[in-house]
């Protein structure tokens, strides 16, 4: 999935290029602490796992995507390695619906005047919209006067005089988008436009929660208010063409707990196991999956008494389809089990060949937008652990956007402190980053992002080596305690609870009401 790039902010006491100190053992030693040795994982272990994921992809049609033989073989490999390391892994299978737009939707006013609306700026196709090309009269349904709220489409009675075949114009509010769209469909609407409430300037990014057969768009308030006014005369006609496919799929998570550690205090350490269908996904995200597996294997050799807190290692399925695996896992946990999770670490793309050493911006100091995604309390402490480790080794770090576009997002929206690392995806490296980390400015962090060339050759092993060391160090620190301070268990995002948040196929936040 798409991840936002790391910023150019540099952490640590000395900003040295990766090439100068990137190899394990060449940098300054980390001060002694309860977590134990600074480098408990050998890069050779990680490389062996990467090679196996490459072989799996080669034997499986070139990828390891959800609901493919490559995914099944990857699951079997990880579970087998965990059993050999003394774990009792649990494979959690789940079903989901994958939404895909085959091409951008089209939205235009055709009468009484012609006007075209711009995708993303004026409107977005709602997650789980149906496909169709509709030109019809548009009718506003129970839209309140400007500046007030109403149920607008939440009740079947709102559609008593609705003409069959018309396009329904609805305002966001009161009930879920699913209910609005279902009531419109039952009344015979040919398409639906749900526009945002006053005060919002962006196109409404929404999820219907389940697949629909008719096109459903989310629009900005400005567009919606304009259309409602035009519809009052009874002559407004719109054209909506949605090119969407909803496909039922299955995937799996793998979860394994350390035998020791207090089960009332759990640290989740995870990475997504799946690739996209266009390539084997070795940097994205076999690097993260292999790193977590190597750390887990080393932890399996520790005495149960060496762990104060329990560590739960996890490999998430269907991340590339919208964080499906991690969301399913956290959402289906009993409330008491969810409350026992004290922190979540996430590792997604750890060896980008033109990358940076990105640490998730848990204190929101690096410009990460918090309008939708404010870091839960405790996330800043996790970031500090990573930065402190790399600063002691005289290795620079960069702020990685903490916007929920990887599996930690499933934990963050529920108030669980999170952190981790990423080295950059398809966005381009800045001149300041090139001066700090080496590499080429103006080129993507990962030139093979979501492409067939994301093979074993597409990994910076020196950068990966230091990042695995950091992952192992912070895991050890959190396992030994103390844990970061945790805030309320129910997280608010832009004033809405976690139940109102989901993710699109590109990792963008989508609202369900």
Describe the structure.
- The protein has two domains: 6-98 and 248-479, 3-Layer(aba) Sandwich (Aminopeptidase); 103-242, Glucose Oxidase, domain 1, CATH 3.50.30.30.
- 26% of the residues lie in helices and 23% in strands.
- It has helices spanning 18-21, 43-58, 69-84, 177-186, 221-231, 282-300, 324-332, 335-339, 379-392, 409-412, 431-437, 461-480; strands at residues 6-11, 90-101, 106-111, 115-116, 123-125, 132-140, 167-171, 191-195, 216-219, 237-242, 244-257, 262-272, 309-316, 341-347, 358-360, 397-400, 418-422, 492-493, 496-497, 501-503, 509-511.
- Helix 2 packs antiparallel against helix 3 (69-84), helix 2 (43-58) crosses helix 6 (282-300) and helix 6 (282-300) crosses helix 12 (461-480).
- The model is unreliable at 2-38 (pLDDT under 50).
- Residues 136-227 form the PA domain.
- It comes from Actinomadura miaoliensis.
- This is Aminopeptidase PaaP.
- Residues 1-19 form the signal peptide.
Number of domains: 2
Query: What is the molecular shape?
Result: elongated
Please name the CATH topology of the largest domain.
Answer: Aminopeptidase
Largest β sheet strand count, sense and barrel closure: 9 strands, mixed
How are the strands of the biggest sheet laid out side by side? Answer: 1-16-15-17-14-12-13-11-2
Q: What is the share of helical residues?
A: 25-40%
Number of strands: 21
Distance between the termini: 24 Å
Strand content: 15-25%
Q: What's the assembly state of these chains?
A: single chain
Supply Rg. Answer: 24 Å
Please give the count of helices.
12
Overall SS class: alpha/beta
CATH class of the largest domain: Alpha Beta
Mean pLDDT: 89
